[in-house]
Amino acid sequence: MKYKQFSHISFDLWLTLIQSNPKYKQRRNRLMLEFFEIELEASVVDETYNRFDKLFNNINEITGGNMDAKELWLIFLAEMNVDVQLLNLTSLQAFTDKTEKLFFEYHPTLLDARTPQLFERLVNEGHTLSLLCNTAFTESTFLKKLLDLLGVGKYLSFKLYSDEMGYSKPNIKVYEKLYSEVQKLKPLTKKDILHIGDNPRADLWGAKNFGIEGRLLLPGETVVTVFENK
Predict the structure, then answer these.
(1) Residue by residue, what is the 3-state secondary structure of the chain?
(2) What pTM, to 2 d.p., does this model score?
(3) pLDDT score for 180
């Protein structure tokens, strides 16, 4: 595939541009144990969180909707034997504020440290770039700050997050939103747009179902090596 034929390139975020810091989830789960006075072993919380994280992502992909992060936390806390009737949005926000501090102390990192240089080159060549990201427990407010911290946010003409749109990939409405935002930058046809991601259903099938080109990252690839090889 010759990438210079595409005027606009859209990128997925998790496991396409960034990877989690394994220490973050462990520290966040320990904070949760203390904050909500959960009387369970930490290992049980870790295993249950991982299971629910995958479940909620699958639900969003299958339904095409987007479960609110605070709703996800309430469901998860109920599984942890917390009486959610005693909670309110204020207490949930207080927990979220504490997790944000941890998130940036143990923040995700770029899969390839050369990504900012790649984005700069693509923009200088005349491409416009954007982000198309499904969210779950980690809200878009965290991710916007993170992209700036990692030095890639400034190269993105716009960023689309499922928690802000109310829809998740591969819902065709997500790709319709991508297309409409691209049109605000310059008049392009679908054949001029490429979306790159790691998820066969959300990224590859979702893009192709809408009618734009999709490129699936293969094991061991990064967005930098993909463009280096072409």
Answers:
(1) CCHHHCCEEEECCECCCEECCHHHHHHHHHHHHHHCCCCCCHHHHHHHHHHHHHHHHHHHHHHCCCCCHHHHHHHHHHHCCCCHHHCCHHHHHHHHHHHHHHHHHCCCEECCCCHHHHHHHHHHCCCEEEEEECCCCCCHHHHHHHHHHCCCHHHEEEEEEHHHHCCCCCCHHHHHHHHHHHHHHCCCCHHHEEEEECCHHHHHHHHHHHCCEEEECCCCCCHHHHHHCC
(2) 0.95
(3) 98
